[in-house]
């Protein structure tokens, strides 16, 4: 074998490992790129899932806020209705007791020649009973001389009056009116003056 052939074989033996190493390196790089691509794809999938979960959580939070607002509104409405019911029951109960006070007033107005001690006793009962009603928030009012007001007065009848200034005013009170919290809970039963000169009629 010549020296040139020997040298050529030696060069081939040296170059072969270089080609193999390059192929292996390229394969490793390719594997790494594939792995990175898969990881990137997985990261993108996770990010998409996280975004979807974020939308879902925000939707749930909004629903919770709406439900809380609806609950608070319902609670406030029920509370108002409960308070109105309590006030209504109180007004009904207290105004029902007014009849007793009216009877005592009527009894005192018609005592005539009754025994003084008896009259004093009735007056004491009337006074104490009126005080109890005041304690419950009820206040009676006597509208004598007031202009007739259908919101406060109930006209039982009309009465001719000589003074034009008394026309369409309360000239006599049959039953006093009553207020609770400055609201009329019972209109006063009254007689209204009517002057011959005319004017606005009583409603």
How would you describe the overall organization of this protein?
Helix content is 63%, strand content 17%. The protein has 203 residues and is of the alpha+beta class. Strands 1-4-5 form a 3-stranded antiparallel beta sheet. The longest helix has 107 residues, at 3-109. It is rod-shaped. The relative contact order is 0.07.
Descriptive labels:
alpha+beta, Nucleotide Exchange Factor Grpe, Chain A, domain 2, 2 domains, three-stranded antiparallel beta sheet, rod-shaped
Shape: rod-shaped
Structural class: alpha+beta
- The overall strand count is 6
**What's the overall average pLDDT, rounded?**
83
Proportion of residues in extended strands: 15-25%
Q: Please give the count of helices.
A: 2
Radius of gyration: 50 Å
Helix content: 55-70%
**Which ranges are low-confidence, i.e. pLDDT below 50, for 5 or more consecutive residues?**
none
Oligomeric nature of the chains: single chain
The N- to C-terminal Cα distance equals 145 Å
Estimate nothing, just give the exact number of structural domains: 2
What strand line-up does the widest sheet have? 1-4-5
Main beta sheet: 3 strands, antiparallel
User: How are helices and strands ordered from N to C?
Assistant: HHEEEEEE
């Amino acid at each position: 074998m010549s020296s040139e052939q020997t040298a050529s074989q030696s060069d081939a033996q040296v170059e072969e490992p270089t080609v193999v190493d390059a192929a292996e390196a390229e394969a490793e790089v390719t594997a790494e790129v594939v792995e990175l691509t898969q990881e990137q794809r997985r990261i993108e999938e996770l990010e998409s899932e996280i975004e979807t979960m974020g939308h879902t959580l925000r939707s749930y939070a909004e629903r919770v806020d709406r439900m809380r607002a609806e609950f608070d509104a319902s609670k406030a409405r029920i509370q108002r209705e409960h308070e109105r019911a309590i006030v209504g029951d109180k007004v009904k109960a207290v105004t029902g007791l007014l009849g007793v006070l009216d009877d005592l007033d009527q009894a005192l107005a018609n005592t005539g020649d009754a025994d003084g001690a008896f009259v004093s006793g009735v007056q004491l009962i009337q006074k104490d009973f009126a005080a109890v009603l005041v304690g419950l928030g009820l206040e009676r009012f006597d509208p004598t001389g007031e202009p007739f007001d259908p919101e406060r007065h109930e006209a039982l009848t009309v009465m001719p009056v000589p003074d034009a200034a008394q026309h369409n005013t309360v000239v006599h009170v049959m039953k006093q009116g009553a207020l609770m919290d400055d609201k009329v809970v019972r209109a006063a039963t009254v007689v209204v003056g009517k002057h011959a000169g005319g004017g606005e009629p009583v409603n």
